[in-house]
Task: structure prediction
Amino acid sequence: MPKNKNWSIDEHIVAFNLYCKIPFSKINANYAPVKELAKIIGRSSGSVAMKLANFARLDPALQARNVSGLSQGAKGEEEVWNKFNDNWEKLAWKSEQILAKYKGESIEKSGEINTDNIPSEGKERETIVKTRVNQSFFRKTILASYNYACCITGISIPELLIASHIIPWSEDHKNRVNPSNGLCLNSLHDRVFDIGLMTITPDYRIKLSKAILKIKDSNTANYFLPYQDKTINLPKRFLPGRKFLEWHNRNVFIDSI
Result:
């Protein structure tokens, strides 16, 4: 294979898929998932790591932290970045399909999707598989962006972490898989956020409802009150979208109880 062979659009797409699903600090040629993708697409791990770093230069969250990635890149990176940000649900699914094709595996196996209790074939199966693939992509992207830690408490036990939607899955189809519509929360605070007893303001501060603030039981209050008006731990990539947080403040947060 020629060393200077141009990257195809499909290679760019699966590289961006990996960029989303691993922590920014792990972008290097020695990281196992980087090596795995390099083997799958027939490129060197150094080449793949450089491509991931090229994507980093386009990330507003990194730019806000004065982390720019590599200073130069290719047009293909910008094209794929813009396509994903225009339609995350479509491109997440497409990237997983392309990755499965490179692996020579079914989309279910490649995406590590549990196929128990779903039809063996047909349109219903396709719909459920697509949903689970995209949900898995969203979870992996959110957890990696927050370095596998709850943005409120810092809890880092994966089994207790939820990739929480700011605008619920059922409310905004276009942004179901958009990582800027997500927060990494532990299961308790995810539930409180989901039912509107807590919100995150557009300036990333934790706001508790009056019902929570009135809690007298110290054993319960200690799970919540220390975080009132504190700033969440921001992700390394894909900052929570202010428009999504504003929506949650207006439409979900209950502050009158």
Observations:
- The radius of gyration is 20 Å.
- The mean pLDDT is 90.
- The chain has two domains: 9-144, 146-251.
